[in-house]
Design a protein that fits this description.
The complex is a heterodimer. By secondary structure, chain A is α+β, with helices and mostly antiparallel strands. Chain A has one domain (6-45, 59-89). Helices cover 35% and strands 9% of the residues of chain A. In chain A, a hairpin with a 2-residue loop joins strand 2 and strand 3 (88-92). In chain A, 7% of the residues are buried. Chain B is α+β, with helices and mostly antiparallel strands. Chain B has 3 domains: 5-296, no CATH class; 304-417, no CATH class; 425-481, Arc Repressor Mutant, subunit A, CATH 1.10.10.410. Chain B contains 15 helices and 17 strands. In chain B, the strands form 4 sheets. In chain B, strands 3-7-8-11-1-12-13-14-15 form a 9-stranded mixed β-sheet. A 3-stranded antiparallel β-sheet of chain B has the order 6-5-16, with no helix packed on it. In chain B, strand 13, helix 3 (227-246) and strand 14 form a beta-alpha-beta unit. In chain B, helix 7 (331-343) crosses helix 8, helix 9 (376-387) runs antiparallel to helix 10 and helix 12 (425-438) crosses helix 15 (471-481). The N and C termini of chain B lie far apart (65 Å). The chains are: A alpha+beta, B alpha+beta. The A-B interface holds A 11, 14-15, 17, 54-55, 57, 59-69, 71-72, 74, 77-78, 80, 85-95 and B 19-21, 25-28, 34-41, 44, 46, 52-58, 77, 82, 84-86, 133-135, 145-151, 268-269, 273, 276, 278, 281, 283, 285-289. Strand 3 (88-92) of chain A pairs antiparallel with strand 10 (146-150) of chain B.
Chain lengths: 95, 483
C-alpha cells in the first residue's frame, strides 16, 4: 500500500478549497494513512468470483417519467444565496 | 498552413436534450425566461435531496448513441465529477466516467471527393450547469466584479459526444459537425440551436510533421459555437502551432478561448490540477441495465435517416443524386417535397423549384420551409398550370414570388395580375406581323442565312406581350412567317 505523504494532503486540501495549518497537515497525514491502512485490509479478501459493485442496494433502473413538476418559488430558491443580485446568486467573479 | 505539417483534430460536442424536464428532477426546461424560476432542492443541490433519472432522457441518449453507430453498454452508471465552480451548486456534476452509455461508434463524413470516417470514442450522459452572467465593474474604484448565477439551465439533460482524433482539417471538422447536427435534428431529440447553446463544440488540436507517427502536443479550444467559428478557430490554431514549431518553439498543452471578434485564440488562465476531478460512482443513483430489448424498441422508433431517405428518393422519384441528398438533408424540406409529390407527378420539376427559387427566397427571408406561405398544394397547382400551358416558366417566376409574399393560390394571382399566357393563334399572328414590319433589317439578316436573328424577333414579341406569349407558339408562327 502506498504511503500517504504530506504533499498528498496538501493536494487534496487544495482541490477541496481547504486551508490547513502546519499542525493539521501533519495530523491528517498520519490519520489518513491509518484510515487507508485499515481499508486496505479488504484487499486480502478473495474477490475472484465477485462482480464489482458500484452500489450496495441491489436494485437497478429507477426512472421517473418526463412530467413537469412545480418548481419552488424564486424567493425560496434564493434564500440560500450568499448574496442576491439581479434575481440571481451573486458569487465572486472567477475567470 | 505549411505543407510540411498536418493537423490532428478531435471534437467534443455537447447537446442539450429537448425533454420536458431536467435530467434528475421534474423542473421544466426553459430558455430565455426570468432567472431562477425553474429550480428545486435537487437541481440546487440542497442536502438530503435525491436525484431520479429521467426515463425520456435515457431514451433520447440511446437515439443519439445509435445515430453515431455506438454500441449501447448493457451496464452503465453515473459518476460524480468533482470540481469547484459556481456554475453548479453541488460542487460536483453528475456525469459518466468509465462506463458511458455508448462506445465504439463512427460517423462517415462526405467530403465530396472522399469520405472521412470519424471514430466516436464515447457518448455519455450528464447534467448541464447553471449559467454565469458576468457583471461589469460596478463602481469607479470598485474591484467588486462579480458573477450572477442563474440555475434555470442547471440540470438540463446533456449528451457529450467525443470523437477519436481522426479529423484532419478544419473543413472536415465543420462537415462533421453539420452532419452530426442533422442526424440529431432528424431524431427530434434536441433543437441543436448553436446560438442558444443547445449544441456546443470544443476542439482538441495538434499539428505534426507529415508522416510523423507521434501526435504532437495538443491544445483545447473552447467557444467554437458556430460552424464558421469552428473552422476559423481551428485554422488560426493550426497556423499558430505551426509557426511556433517552425520557429523552434514548443506547443504548451493548454485550454484556449476563441474570440470571434479578433479571430484569434487566447489562453485561458490555466487552472492548476483542474483536471483532477476525483470521479467516483454516484451513490444517489442505482446502476442502469439497458437490455437489448429496450435498445431494439428505441431503434424501432427512429424514422428513416438522411442517407436512407436520399437513397429512397433516388429510386422512388427517379431523382439525380444531388437532388436526393439536397432534399433529404433537412427533414422539413423532405416532407414538403413528398407532400408535393402526392399532388403532382413530375418530381424533378418539384425538386428544381425547391432547390432553386424557393430556397433562394427562404434563405433571403431566413425562414424555414414550414413557415413559408406557399403550401405544397399551391406549388403543385402552379406546376400543373405551367404544364397545361396557361403560363410559361418565366411568368411562373413572378407568380411564385407573389405566392411567397401573399400565400394566395396561383389561380388567383394569375387572374389578379393578368398573367395568363397568350395562346390565341390569331392574336399572336397579328403581333408577330407587327414585329416583322417594324424590324425589316433583322428580317433581311435572317433571310440571308443568319438564323440566330430569329431570337431577337421573338424577344420583341415577348416584350410586347409582357412575357405572356406562349413561346412555343411564337416560335412556330414566326418561323412560318419568315419563310
Amino acid at each position: 500500500m502506498r504511503k500517504i505523504e504530506r504533499k498528498d494532503i496538501e493536494h487534496i486540501a487544495k482541490l477541496a478549497e481547504l486551508d490547513f495549518s502546519d499542525g493539521e497537515l501533519e495530523k491528517f497525514t498520519v490519520q489518513l494513512d491509518r484510515i487507508l491502512d485499515h481499508v486496505a485490509r479488504i484487499s486480502k479478501v478473495d474477490t475472484e468470483k465477485i462482480l464489482p459493485t458500484s452500489h450496495v442496494i441491489e436494485i437497478k433502473n429507477v426512472f421517473r417519467d418526463d412530467i413537469v413538476k412545480k418548481s419552488i418559488p424564486k424567493e425560496d430558491a434564493l434564500k440560500n444565496a450568499p448574496e442576491v443580485s439581479d434575481g440571481g446568486f451573486k458569487v465572486p467573479k472567477i475567470d | 498552413m505549411s505543407k510540411k505539417y498536418e493537423s490532428v483534430i478531435g471534437l467534443e460536442t455537447h447537446i442539450e436534450l429537448s425533454t420536458n424536464t431536467k435530467m434528475f428532477c421534474g423542473c421544466k426546461l426553459s430558455f430565455g425566461e426570468e432567472s431562477n424560476v425553474h429550480t428545486c432542492p435537487v437541481c440546487l443541490g440542497h442536502p438530503g435531496s435525491l436525484p431520479v433519472v429521467n426515463k425520456k432522457a435515457i431514451e433520447y441518449a440511446i437515439k443519439i448513441a445509435l445515430a453515431v453507430n455506438c454500441k449501447i453498454r448493457e451496464y452503465t452508471i453515473f459518476h460524480r465529477k468533482n470540481y469547484f465552480y459556481p456554475d453548479q451548486a453541488k460542487n460536483y456534476q453528475i456525469s459518466q466516467y468509465d462506463l458511458p452509455l455508448g462506445v465504439g461508434g463512427y460517423l462517415d463524413v462526405d467530403m465530396g471527393d472522399y469520405v472521412r470516417r470519424v471514430g466516436i470514442t464515447r457518448v455519455h450522459m450528464e447534467e448541464d450547469t447553471g449559467k454565469l452572467l458576468h457583471t461589469g465593474r460596478t463602481g469607479r474604484i470598485s474591484e467588486s466584479v462579480a458573477s450572477i448565477v442563474d440555475f434555470n439551465r442547471g440540470g438540463t439533460p446533456l449528451i457529450e459526444i467525443v470523437t477519436e482524433p481522426d479529423i484532419k482539417s478544419p473543413e472536415e471538422a465543420k462537415e462533421y459537425l453539420i452532419r452530426l447536427r442533422n442526424l440529431i435534428l432528424y431524431r427530434g431529440v434536441s433543437n441543436c440551436n448553436m446560438e442558444e447553446g443547445s449544441l456546443r463544440c470544443d476542439a482538441n488540436i495538434s499539428v505534426k510533421k507529415v508522416g510523423e507517427e507521434r501526435i504532437g502536443t495538443k491544445t483545447e479550444i473552447k467557444n467554437l459555437n458556430s460552424f464558421k467559428f469552428l473552422q476559423k478557430g481551428l485554422q488560426y490554431e493550426i497556423e499558430r502551432q505551426t509557426n511556433l514549431l517552425e520557429s523552434g518553439g514548443k506547443v504548451i498543452q493548454q485550454t484556449r478561448h476563441y474570440d470571434n471578434n479578433t479571430n484569434m485564440t487566447k489562453v485561458l488562465r490555466s487552472k492548476e490540477e483542474a483536471h483532477d476531478y476525483r470521479y467516483f460512482p454516484e451513490p444517489d443513483l442505482v446502476p442502469m441495465h439497458i437490455e437489448s430489448k429496450v435498445v431494439d424498441e428505441v431503434r424501432c422508433t427512429i424514422g428513416e435517416l438522411p442517407a436512407e431517405k436520399a437513397e429512397r428518393f433516388e429510386k422512388e422519384y427517379n431523382l439525380p443524386k444531388y437532388d436526393s441528398s439536397f432534399l433529404s438533408n433537412d427533414k422539413k424540406v423532405a416532407r414538403y417535397f413528398e407532400d408535393c409529390c402526392k399532388l403532382y407527378s413530375n418530381a424533378k420539376n418539384i425538386s428544381n423549384w425547391i432547390m432553386g427559387d424557393f430556397s433562394a427566397l427562404l434563405n433571403k427571408e431566413g425562414i424555414d420551409i414550414n413557415d413559408s406561405k406557399i403550401k405544397p398544394a399551391n406549388l403543385a397547382s402552379m406546376l400543373k398550370i405551367i404544364d397545361g400551358g396557361k403560363i410559361n416558366s418565366k411568368i411562373a417566376k413572378s407568380v411564385f414570388e407573389e405566392m411567397f409574399k401573399t400565400g394566395e393560390s396561383p389561380q388567383v394571382i394569375i387572374e389578379k395580375m393578368g398573367l395568363e399566357q397568350i395562346s390565341d393563334g390569331g392574336l399572336l399572328e397579328d403581333i408577330i406581323e407587327e414585329i416583322i414590319k417594324e424590324n425589316p433589317g433583322t428580317v433581311k439578316q435572317y433571310k440571308n442565312g443568319k438564323k440566330k436573328a430569329i431570337g431577337f424577333l421573338i424577344g420583341r414579341v415577348m416584350a410586347r406581350t409582357k412575357g405572356k406569349a406562349n413561346p412555343k407558339m411564337v416560335n412556330e408562327i414566326m418561323t412560318k412567317k419568315l419563310k
